[in-house]
Each structure stands twice: as structure tokens, then as C-alpha cells.
């Protein structure tokens, strides 16, 4: 759930999708659930206080930056979908592309 969705407003736009994509990218890169084994209410509290999941397991700086941008508390600061695609394409063309940063069993 994006932070703005917890404010009892009807929000469901591109910015929400970008936030959710950030959560998916985080889990893909680290093999971890972004806010640990917690419920949505506690995860939302962590978000509201500015706590972001640790990115120490993400070795590529471009991916770290992308995840942080996608998880921005301010929906207006999240990247456009075209920018995300461009970043992911450039990461995919890097020398380390296809090499797993972590092994998830």
C-alpha cells in the first residue's frame, strides 16, 4: 500500500503503481519482504515516519536509486513509468546484468 492510500482518500493512480513496483523491485533484488514480516498497518507506520527498507543487499547503485525514488513518500517525486523503463533498460545493458546479487532459495 502506498503511503497516501492510508490517509482515507481515494487514491489509485500511476504514482501508487510506481510505489508498488518499488516494493516488487526491492523484494526481487534482496529476496526480502520490504518491511519484514509485518502487517500493512505497521508497514504504513514505518513509511509515515520515513523508515525505508534497508538497501544494503542491493549492489547496483542505479537500482538502489530507482527503488528509493519509487518508494518516495511524496507521490509527485516518484519517477514516471517511462523513466523507470529507461533506467531498467540501462541496468540490463550494464556489465553486471543477469548476475544475481543475492541467492534466494
Description:
By secondary structure, the chain is mainly α. The protein has a single domain (3-92), classed as Transferase(Phosphotransferase) domain 1 (Transferase(Phosphotransferase), domain 1, Orthogonal Bundle). Helices cover 46% and strands 0% of the residues. The chain contains 4 helices and no strands. The protein is globular and about 40 Å long. The two termini are 26 Å apart. The relative contact order is 0.18. Residues 101-105 have low confidence and may be disordered.
Outline:
Helix content is 46%, strand content 0%. With 105 residues, the protein is mainly α.
Query: Helical element count?
Result: 4
Rg value: 14 Å
Q: Unreliable runs, pLDDT <50, ≥5 residues?
A: 101-105
* CATH third-level topology: Transferase(Phosphotransferase), domain 1
Using the coordinates above, name the CATH class.
Answer: Mainly Alpha
- Residues in helix, %: 40-55%
Order of helices and strands: HHHH
Give the N-terminus to C-terminus distance in angstroms: 26 Å
Envelope shape: globular
Number-wise, the strands total 0
Overall structural class, as computed from helix and strand content, comes to mainly alpha
CATH architecture: Orthogonal Bundle
Report the β-strand fraction as a percent range: under 5%
Major beta-sheet overview: none
The CATH superfamily bears the name Transferase(Phosphotransferase) domain 1
| Rounded average pLDDT | 79
Please give the domain count.
1
Protein name: Protein kinase domain-containing protein
Pfam family, one: Pkinase
Organism: Blattamonas nauphoetae
Amino acid at each position: 500500500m502506498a503511503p497516501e492510500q492510508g490517509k482515507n482518500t481515494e487514491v489509485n493512480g500511476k504514482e501508487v503503481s510506481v510505489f508498488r513496483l518499488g516494493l516488487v523491485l526491492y523484494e526481487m533484488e534482496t529476496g526480502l519482504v520490504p518491511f519484514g514480516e509485518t502487517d500493512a498497518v505497521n508497514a504504513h507506520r514505518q513509511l509515515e515516519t520515513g523508515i525505508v527498507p534497508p538497501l544494503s543487499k542491493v549492489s547496483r547503485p542505479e537500482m538502489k536509486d530507482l527503488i528509493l525514488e519509487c518508494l518516495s513518500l511524496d507521490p509527485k517525486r516518484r519517477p514516471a513509468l517511462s523513466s523507470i523503463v529507461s533506467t531498467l533498460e540501462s541496468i540490463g545493458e550494464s556489465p553486471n546484468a543477469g548476475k544475481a546479487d543475492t541467492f534466494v532459495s
